[in-house]
Amino acid sequence: MSMDFGGLRAVDRLDLEIQQGEIVALIGPNGAGKTTFFNCITGIYAPTEGDIHIHPPGGQAKRINGLKPNRVTELGLARTFQNIRLFQQMTVLENVMIGRHCRLRSGIPGAVFRPQHTVKEERQAVMDSYRVLEKIGLERFVNDLAKNLPYGAQRRLEIARALATDPFLLLLDEPAAGMNPQETHALDQLILRLRETEGVSILLIEHDMKLVMSLSDRIYVMDYGRKIAEGTPQQIKNDPVVIKAYLGEEYVA
Amino acid sequence: MMSLVEIRKSFLVSIWFMFLTFPIMVIRVNTVENIVEWRWNNMIAVGVGSFLLSFVWRYLIRRKEQGVRRQRESAGPRVSIFQRIGEDRRIFLPALTAAALAVVVFPFLVSMYQINIMTTAFMYIMLGLGLNIVVGVAGLLDLGYVAFYAVGAYTYALLNYHFGLNFWVCLPIGAALGALFGILLGFPVLRLRGDYLAIVTLGFGEIIRLILENWNEFSFGPSGISNIPRPGFFGVEFSLLAHTRYIYFLVVLITIFTIFMVNRLQNSRIGRAWLALREDEIACQAMGVDKVRTKLTAFALGATWAGLAGVIFAAKTTFINPASFTLWESINILCIVVLGGMGSIVGVILGALVLVLLPEYLRAFAEYRILTFGCVLVLMMVFRPGGIVSNVRRTYRFEGPDSGDK
User: Fold this and answer.
1) Cβ–Cβ gap B289/A108 under 8 Å
2) How many angstroms separate the CA of residue B395 from the nearest CA in chain A?
3) Residue A100 maps to a domain
4) Under an 8 A CB cutoff, do B268 and A110 touch?
């Protein structure tokens, strides 16, 4: 898959595969095109070339190039953002309820007349959202405004919101950025637990190598828009190409 | 606590003002007797006046800052007086009854002129609530809102003129056409935000007005359409006073209907999506909210109330021309929303009452009317930037595993 911005090729024929239930990390120096790749998958940009195929568990294979972001989310891909993008003025519960949005159906007539099934649906949405918060461990903030949460909790709320859309693939864009070691460790546990209990596959971009190495089943390394390596954490650690990209020529012994 | 520093600062301000206004307030050249008059009294007045004003200003600012600090110190969420009224049934029900009684009795106690003003105020409540959906809840700054109002008014006027359709038939048609135009405006501005959106909507409002002004065959141009029939009531003939009262009650009913509808819409899945759209568009889309549809419903539903109000306006005044639908009108409605408190229904109602009634009752001040009005607006925005009723949005709360409700 490729992505051009004018004459600039931000992502160059990157190909990447995630199996059901896998945790895959995408790493690379700053500006390598990781987030651009994310944006292409989730429909914020339409890729210039190439295909994105999904095979949802129990569903049909589908090509999702250039679909609108909300369609992509409906199909089961949910993401978080590198720079936190919560709905600041809404409560934690409401943030998660927006995640439920695409799984709810009630429209304008439902809003106006409030028939029984709409009331039930709304109540169910509140309950489901609360359950998601419980899973992530944010239930004590449930009625607080999102902007008043501590930083680490805001990061986790992003994950909760994404999880509320019932995804089969969770795309996490630097979930540990700005977290202290304890928070990072808790996040590590959380991601593993999510895979166990929810059965979601996870694609994550991260700079915290300790987290990446302990979590991932496989790692892809990008530099200047290209894939320069892929493999297990052990392989990547010892790959001279990767070391060169990160540290420069002279460190390759 | 009045510190010496404050007094000195205010003193310096007054000196500065005396110096600034010296040429115009003190010196006057009397051309008849060819002498220069020195009006020192004026200088003293300016000095004392500006000293006091500056002092009061400083005092209020400080109080406001202390209020913010106090709020931050006390951990719990601040509950405003309006919220308290809304939540406590013992206060809420009597208050509502009193308000309802006042609204019902009002037209039988006052003159026709007063009834008309009140009717106008209620119509502005409708307009404000409509615009509140677009600006306050969905966060789309719309400066061309009056266009939909014009659409409603001309719908009734023209349909009545050409086909003799009566008010009750035209009311839903006006609302529907308003919604249709809302969608028409919505499509081209889907990708725009903030300032750009404001400019495009402003242009849209002006286009509608200019079309009405210049397309003589269609809209009769600047001379407008007159003799629009008032709404009928099962063929009963009314005197002028009775008719004024009738329209008043009609508007009150439709306003209550509006409040009901808008309230329900805001507290629904769609209302939630609007709020999220206001907060962060990209995140909103990434969470599976259809941006196109959500924005278009906001525009359409906002415009519906303008269309409805337009039909009533045409029926009430029995004469319309494009001069009623200028940019100033849009700004006025926007002021109602901003002054009342963005996104708050009670706020918009109060805002509309203040903004319509204040200029009317300030007529006593004659030429200072607009000046006073402007000052009130500026002071409001300095001391209550969130509007009269700020931050009383009903949020979804989780009360416990059994009562998952708001």
Assistant:
1) no
2) 7
3) no
4) yes
- Output the pTM of the full model: 0.82
Please report the pLDDT score of residue A56 as a whole number: 80
Cα dihedral sign, B325-B304-B298-B254 = positive
Output the domain CATH number for residue A227.
Answer: 3.40.50.300
Contacts of A112-119 with CB under 8 Å at 24 or more apart are A112/B261, A112/B264, A112/B265, A114/B264, A118/B268
Which residues span the domain enclosing A20? 3-76+167-251
Determine which of A5-9, A137-141, B199-203, B245-249 has the lowest per-residue pLDDT on average.
A5-9
- A159 within some domain: no
3-class secondary-structure state, position A27: strand
Phi, psi of B298 (to 5 degrees): -60, -50
Q: At what angle do helices B194-214 and B146-163 cross, to 10 degrees?
A: 30
Question: What's the number of domains chain A is made of?
Answer: 1
Q: pLDDT per position in chain A (253 positions), as tens? A: 566 665 666 777 788 888 888 899 988 888 888 888 888 888 888 888 778 888 887 777 788 877 888 888 888 888 998 888 898 888 898 899 988 888 888 888 878 888 888 888 888 888 888 888 988 888 888 888 888 888 888 998 999 999 998 888 899 998 888 888 888 888 889 889 888 888 888 998 988 888 888 888 889 888 888 888 888 888 888 888 888 877 776 654 4
Return the DSSP state at B23: I
CA distance B71 to chain A (A): 14
* B354 within some domain: yes
- For range B95-109, the mean pLDDT: 84
Q: Are the Cβ atoms of A90 and B276 closer than 8 angstroms?
A: yes
Is A140 part of any domain?
A: no
Residue A40, judged by CB atoms within 10 A of its CB (0-12, 13-18, 19+), counts as buried
What ipTM does this complex have?
A: 0.86
Q: What share of chain A is helix, strand, coil (3-state, %, to 5)?
A: 45, 20, 40
- The answer to whether residues B322 and B224 belong to one domain is yes
CA B200 from chain centre, in angstroms, equals 20
Interface test with A, best of B396, B399, B405, B406 (most A CBs within 10 A): B396
Nearest Cα residue in chain A from B260:
A112
- Chain A residues with CB under 8 Å of B138 CB are none
pLDDT at B398: 64
In sequence order, the β-bridge partners of residue A172 are A204
Chain B interface, best mutation among A72, A90, A96, by max B CB count within 10 A: A90
Q: Quick one: average pLDDT of B264-287?
A: 89
What's the pLDDT band for B406 if we cut at 50, 70, 90?
Answer: very low
Using the beta-carbon criterion (under 8 Å), do B286 and A78 form an inter-chain contact? Answer: yes
Q: Using CB atoms, which residue from A70, A90, A123 is nearest to B405?
A: A123
Q: Do B265 and A106 touch (CB under 8 A)?
A: no
Rounded to whole angstroms, the Cα distance separating B286 from B277 reads 11
Considering the domain architecture, whether residues B121 and B36 belong to the same structural domain is answered as no
CA dist list (Å): B160 to A29, B11, B70, B248: 69, 65, 59, 21
CB–CB contact B398 A130 (8 Å): yes
CA of B95 to nearest chain A CA: how many angstroms apart? 25
Are the beta carbons of A90 and B297 separated by less than 8 Å? Answer: no
Lowest mean pLDDT among A215-224, B63-72, B152-161, B341-350: B63-72
Q: How many domains does chain B have?
A: 2
